[in-house]
Fold this protein.
Amino acid sequence: MQVVPASRSRDLIELIVGYGAIIGTVWSAEHLQAILSPFVLVLTLVIVLARRPSRDELGMGWRGLVASLWILPAAVALAVLSIVTAAEIGTLHPLYKAGPGHVAGYILWTIYQQVLLQDYFLPRLLGLVKNEAVAVGLTAVLFAAAHMPNLALTVVTLIWGIASCVAFRRYRNLWILGLAQGLLGLCFAICVPDALHHHLRVGLGYLRYQSGHRVP
């Protein structure tokens, strides 16, 4: 019987624990999510930091920042094109909870999602499969699957998951990726009808939200 190296076993266990905690939270009732979400946030960050990565390894340093700056104007251009198109076909609508606090909170959330993608799931999958293309693909699949049953979000997060992982492997900076994801996410929210994405809800929250009204 082949012995699995300790490092690979650790990667697998941490992958299962982290993803299991996220999926369990996503599919919990709203009152439980309020309790579980901070726990999952702390748990995943503790697991990431337990390996004592440097700021550059985390993608939170200066490395790759200037080289990756082009991603932001590219995201802005895509957002403008999407808004113009949505206005032309009649799907453009106001942002749900458009206050600055809500928008800022969403941007922070997308930066944290990049931490999960680039610092949690991708390194562990690289340790398990050793093939970069396969690891990137699997990371994107996990990311997209966490947005089920929101099919619209599942499709775009699969594409973005691949693109952001490839960009991170090249530039090693997640600040730009987090900001770009936040911008594109807000654009998606106002360009795609709420009837399709239920205010970007996923899991149980998506199923319990119909036509702008919560299901008791």
